[in-house]
Each structure stands twice: as structure tokens, then as C-alpha cells.
Design a protein that fits this description.
By secondary structure, the protein is of the alpha+beta class. It has one domain: Peptide methionine sulphoxide reductase MsrA (Peptide Methionine Sulfoxide Reductase, Chain A), CATH 3.30.1060.10.
């Protein structure tokens, strides 16, 4: 009888943990919520969408920029609706890991964001950034207006004229169609997982390089801490 009671008690405890874990996983897997056009208009914010490899690093970089209000990691450039991280990471959707940048154009301009975009990844490697290989890690700018397209193209011409890179820039400049926010656990991943081996070895060096080269564009808190 004592053993039976112990077994039932253990089963209830395990069931409780299982339910808690399932609830936690469900919350973590839920996609982030995008701000509405009404909210953006009220806040005086514009939107830009970029893909430059793993979105953990790209998100962390743009979050440090003066005039940027919010950055959301997600997927863009493909036809699949509501893609999951697993689908995108296996290259099944045509989407790239991307970020949606919500910024105040009175503080920082679109061309300045494009400049930061090019300066913080290698735009000459086709479908690859560092250890990440595949179309889902391609370099891409998703423009919303003809003006944005022209500004992006002008930056490419400027960089190539200055021979900034040894190889040709292969960044795709294509019209924006849709952006699907990534699962909750991907948002602010750099901040929440500083000891993750990928963050330590791949993302952090890029973020620190950006902080050093763009001190004049860093938010105040990052100018002080440099972290």
C-alpha cells in the first residue's frame, strides 16, 4: 500500500511538471506579435526589413542603434505562410532569417540603416554567413518603396566603387511581401543567452565590432557599458 501511494504521488508530480513544461514550451513557441500600422503611425515609426544571416546577431546589432525603437526576428522572402523555425532552417520555405526594424526616421534614416546592414555582415558570400549555409542565411534587403530600392542600390554602387570588398556583392534587393515573426524563444536571444556557444563564438564578436566602429550611432546605454 505504501509503495502504491508513493507511485501515485510520484505520478502526480511528474504529470504536474509535464503540464508545466508543455505550457512553457507553448508560450516559448508562440510567434512574437507585430505592432499594428496604427500603433506605428501613432509612434511616428517606419519599418525596414533585412536579412544578413542568423537573426540572433542581426537583431542584437540593430537593437543598439539610436533611433531604433524595436527589432523583431522572423522570416521573409519566401511564399510559405506562417513558417516555423524548423521549416526555415531546413531550407523548405524559400524564406530567409530576417529582422523587422522599427525606427524613428527623424533620428536615423533608411540609408543609415542600410549602411549598418552592409557593415555588419559579409554581403559577398552567396547563401552563407560564417558557419551558417543555405538560402535561409542569404543577404537580402526587402524594400517597401522605389526610394528605398534606389537608396539600397546606391549603397551597393558606393561600396563597389570604393572596392570595399574583394569579391562582388551578392545581396538581393527585392520587394517586401510579408514578414512572419519567429517563435518567442528567438526574440532577444542574444540578450537572454549570453553564454550560448554560438552567441559567444559567432554573434558576440560581430556585435562588439559593430559597437567599436559605430560608437556615434549607439544608444546611450551601450556607449556606457559597451556590451
Amino acid at each position: 500500500m505504501k509503495r502504491l501511494y508513493s507511485f501515485l504521488l510520484l505520478s502526480l508530480v511528474l504529470l504536474s511538471y509535464a503540464c508545466t513544461d508543455a505550457s512553457s514550451r507553448q508560450a516559448q513557441n508562440a510567434p512574437a506579435t507585430l505592432p499594428s500600422e496604427t500603433e506605428l503611425k501613432a509612434a511616428g515609426l517606419a519599418t525596414a526589413t533585412f536579412a544578413s544571416g542568423c537573426f540572433w546577431c542581426t537583431e542584437a546589432i540593430f537593437e543598439r542603434v539610436q533611433g531604433v525603437d524595436k527589432v523583431i526576428s522572423g522570416y521573409s522572402g519566401g511564399k510559405e505562410k506562417k513558417p516555423t523555425y524548423e521549416q526555415v532552417s531546413y531550407g523548405k520555405t524559400g524564406h530567409a532569417e530576417a529582422v523587422q526594424v522599427y525606427y524613428n526616421p527623424k533620428v536615423i534614416t533608411y540609408p543609415e540603416l542600410v549602411e549598418i546592414f552592409f557593415a555588419t555582415h559579409d554581403p559577398t558570400t552567396l547563401n552563407r554567413q560564417g558557419p551558417d549555409v543555405g538560402r535561409q542565411y542569404r543577404s537580402a534587403i526587402f524594400y517597401r518603396t522605389e526610394t528605398e530600392k534606389q537608396q539600397a542600390e546606391e549603397q551597393v554602387k558606393k561600396l563597389e566603387a570604393a572596392r570595399k570588398y574583394k569579391n562582388r556583392i551578392v545581396t538581393e534587393i527585392q520587394p517586401y511581401t510579408a514578414f512572419w515573426p519567429a517563435e518567442g524563444y528567438h526574440q532577444d536571444y542574444y540578450q537572454h543567452h549570453p553564454d550560448d556557444s554560438y552567441i559567444v563564438n559567432v554573434s558576440a564578436p560581430k556585435v562588439h565590432k559593430f559597437e567599436k566602429e559605430f560608437k556615434h550611432k549607439l544608444k546611450h546605454q551601450y556607449q556606457k557599458t559597451g556590451s
